[in-house]
Specification:
The chain has 179 residues and is mainly α. It has one domain (19-171): Ferritin, CATH 1.20.1260. It has five helices and no strands. α1 packs antiparallel against α2 (55-82). The longest helix is centred in the first third of the chain and has 31 residues, at 19-49. The protein starts with 18 loop residues before the first helix and ends in an 8-residue tail after the last helix. Residues 1-8 and 169-179 have low confidence and may be disordered.
């Protein structure tokens, strides 16, 4: 049975979710899309500019992370459209809607990039977990499942960044915590 609501911000779709819930989840998804596009650009910034003895491994790591984030943007955008919305994933939109802090422009050394990315992945991961709960509260199991999948992947990426920081800290004789 089709939900019919011909308002400009909501396109007709076959989903059984009520229009008000679709609009709510679409706003949540749009925010996620903006942050994901932004985070991917941060990872690419690190990939292009990393220098140092770990260049090869970090460049490859950052390139893989960017590919994963690109896949996440597609999943979020597709869900937005399924719910009857329009995915707005341009860089300009991301710049105005992302809640992530700006990436430092002058970083070169691998450890600095790792720390900067970990500092951006952590709040992004927290926002994904919050979105799981928010989508579940309005009984949108599909969006909650999407957020769960993204959360698992992002938590893994954050764990890898933290593992590199741990190794780097140990090599430099520093504390192993991320403070």
């Amino acid at each position: 049975m089709n939900q019919r609501d011909d308002t400009p911000d909501l396109r007709p779709t076959g989903t059984a979710l009520p229009p008000d819930i679709r609009r709510y989840v679409m706003q949540l998804l749009q925010q996620t899309l903006a942050c994901t596009v932004d985070l991917r650009s941060h990872v690419k910034q690190a990939c292009w500019n990393v220098k140092g003895h770990d260049f090869g491994s970090l460049h490859a790591l950052f390139a893989t992370m960017a590919i994963d984030l690109e896949a996440y943007t597609d999943l979020v955008a597709e869900r937005l459209v399924v719910l009857g919305g329009v995915a707005r994933g341009t860089v300009r939109t991301a710049a105005t809607q992302s809640t992530l802090p700006e990436y430092p422009g002058a970083l070169l050394e691998g450890q600095a990039h790792l720390r900067a990315l970990a500092e951006r992945f952590a709040p992004y991961a927290t926002a994904l977990r919050d979105a799981i709960a928010r989508a579940a509260e309005v009984e949108d199991a599909g969006s909650a499942a999407l957020y769960t999948d993204l959360s698992r992947g992002v938590d893994k990426q954050l764990g890898v960044l933290e593992a590199y920081l741990y190794v780097e800290g140990a090599c430099a004789g520093r504390d192993h915590t991320m403070t």
